[in-house]
Design brief:
- By secondary structure, the protein is of the alpha/beta class.
- Helix content is 37%, strand content 18%.
- It has 13 helices and 11 strands.
- The strands form 2 sheets. Strands 2-1-3-4-6-5 form a 6-stranded parallel sheet, sandwiched between helices.
- The longest helix is centred in the first third of the chain and has 15 residues.
- The radius of gyration is 19 Å and the shape is globular.
């Protein structure tokens, strides 16, 4: 489980992006292998780090394919690059570079996004990134971290940098009130019940817990959906009659294949809750998108109750 510290207590007041910039600057100071590549986004947060390490903090401007390509080149040179910008630009726009400049060349790095599925709703569809984790499922070996609180970001980032595997860290303005989980990827059980195992990924946990009030369900949390803790999932499914609900802050059904694979040898049923595939053109606010996609507590609760049926 997550442990508090003076540093993490300070992070109670920061956004995930603030926490990421502070943690990355610390890693630049401590590890000469670390380099940060930016595409203008968050450049102001790295101003002091760039002054201290001008050879390892690179801003390529609004050129996202170059961002990922440059990070791949730094990896080939023996550095551990952290590439950072908005989710749709880092993953969807530059996916060919992720596939070729990292995967095909046998290198790895750390990709850190902001914006998530619809954080900057007023930026419209160009800045929405609900498909990112689904794209990573087409590549082998990448780890995916989805923190639910700013205080979870530094340990997850350090875990990603210390590994030799490729890692994607998905930051969001949506967050839980308190940090949870650890860095080992294990599902953390928040409450127990008998009728279903409800898995909450990252910043949807508080809404899931609120939705579960009055329901006889287990709620478990993960900030590491890839690799998913399938052994933990199997144990929880066995305790709840094979009934699983997967609540994710990205494209609905993204993890359905993985849950089905994990439980393929036993009877089970699955409800996937996430961001819908339809585009909501009245962009509004992130909170409104959360409600319209059914990811608020009321929407999640209604779908789970319908799925479970009468007690």
């Amino acid at each position: 489980m997550f442990r508090s510290s003076p540093l993490t207590d300070d992070l109670q007041r920061l956004t995930m992006r603030d926490a990421f910039a502070a943690a990355a600057a610390d890693l630049l100071d401590r590890d000469p292998r670390v380099a940060v590549v930016l595409a203008d986004i968050s450049a102001d947060l790295f101003r002091k780090a760039a002054e201290a390490h001008p050879d390892r903090v690179v801003n390529v401007g609004i050129r996202e394919q170059l961002l990922v390509g440059a990070a791949g080149g730094l990896a080939l040179a023996g550095l551990r690059p952290i590439a950072h910008t908005y989710a749709p630009f880092l993953i969807e726009r530059a996916f060919e570079q992720v596939k070729l400049d990292f995967e095909r060349q046998g290198t790895s790095g750390v990709l850190v996004s902001v914006g998530a599925s619809y954080d900057w709703a007023e930026g419209s569809f160009t800045h929405f990134g609900p498909r990112d984790v689904a794209l990573f499922d087409t590549l082998p070996g990448w780890r995916v971290f989805v923190p639910g609180h700013a205080a979870e970001v530094p340990p997850l980032l350090e875990e990603a940098v210390d590994s030799e595997e490729g890692a994607y860290v998905r930051l969001s303005l949506r967050h839980n009130e308190a940090p949870h989980g650890g860095t080992d990827g294990a599902l953390s059980v928040m409450r127990r019940g008998k009728r279903a195992a409800v898995i909450a990924v990252g910043p949807v946990l508080d809404n899931v817990l609120a939705a579960a009030e009055g329901l006889d369900v287990t709620v478990a949390y993960t900030n590491t959906p890839r690799p998913l803790d399938t052994e933990g999932l199997r144990d929880l499914a066995a305790e709840t009659g094979g009934t699983v609900v997967m609540v994710e802050p990205y494209l609905e059904g993204t993890s359905a294949w993985l849950v089905s694979k994990a439980l393929s040898d036993r009877p089970h049923r699955l409800l996937s809750i996430g961001v819908g595939r339809e585009e909501l053109r009245r962009y509004g606010t992130a909170a409104q998108h959360e409600r319209l996609h059914g990811l608020d507590a009321e929407g999640i609760g209604a779908r789970v109750r319908e799925f479970l049926g009468p007690a």
